[in-house]
Amino acid sequence: MDESIFKTSPVITRYPDTILSRHDVPYRSALTFNAGIIYSRGRYIMLFRNDIGSYDEHKLEGTNIGYAESSDGIKWDVKPEPVFDGHVWDSTLGEGESIRCYDPRITEFDGRYYVTLAVDTRHGVRGGMLVTDDFISYEPISLSVPDNRNMVLFPEKIGGLYCRLERPMPVYSRGRDRFDLWMSYSPDLKYWGDSKLVLAVEDVPFANDKIGPGAPPILTEKGWLIIYHAVDLDTSRGKNGWEDRWQKRYTIGAMILDRDDPSKIVGMMKTPLMVPEGYWETEEGMRTNALFPCAALVVGDTLRIYHSAGDAIVRMATAKLSDVLDLCSEKR
Ligand code: BMA
After folding, report:
1. What is the pTM of this model?
2. CA of residue 72 to ligand 1 center, whole Å
3. Residue 175: is its pLDDT beyond 90?
């Protein structure tokens, strides 16, 4: 891989402070990351992954999902209790099948809130979708076949159908991790199909391992802006973070999909939008060098990207929306 392209784009400004960490959480918390965030009805809303255990001892025991609210999207009040965990699927799957769920993304659609997330089950990881009206009770809607995760729902129907981006993990046909970004359609949010490959890992010059949807799509004047994650693997990388060997680096990419046929790429960046840099992104956390975006919002003419750093905390970066759109000008 050409290491010289691994630089954060100059259009990006990192917000200096951490947006959410375990110190903000009033219940047991070791890692707070991969947060879905929306702005709705006058406030910012966050669902975040809360891994329980001990940060200092590098031990994890389980995962639940926390809820936080904010008036500015920067300072957050975390609700006193987590809102759900893997048991939310018991009514659908029976007790004991779902182990945990994580990495929530939120899409508001016709006044209801849809939460897509990864569901680890005894028989593989499945992409799940829940709906809520109040962020208190959550109703299961659908679960994909394994292995699939990183689903994001478009905020409107296209061609009369619901659309989602997703990331299946085809180990049989691709030899090793070569995971691509796909999309599927549904008439009712429950039955999904007509799946199409949108972006293959080999078409991303800064990925050699896998890519996957990050934030739910944002409709812009140029089409659907997609902020996604891209992974490059280097087997010479050694210990970094909590694991004995952490050989991957997670960067952030951007592309634009066609307004009326989002299976088609209008333009993309051939270099990363963001690369792990600085203390919080390269030195701290469970897995260093891992930026993982699960939310992006437009506030005025600014694009906010909320991403995890080190699978440990939530941070934010901003750019002028028009600058990011201009950068997405290359053909696949
Ligand atoms: C992915 C998922 C995410 C995680 C990321 C970076 O494969 O496991 O939950 O944030 O790796 O470690």
Report:
1. 0.98
2. 27
3. no
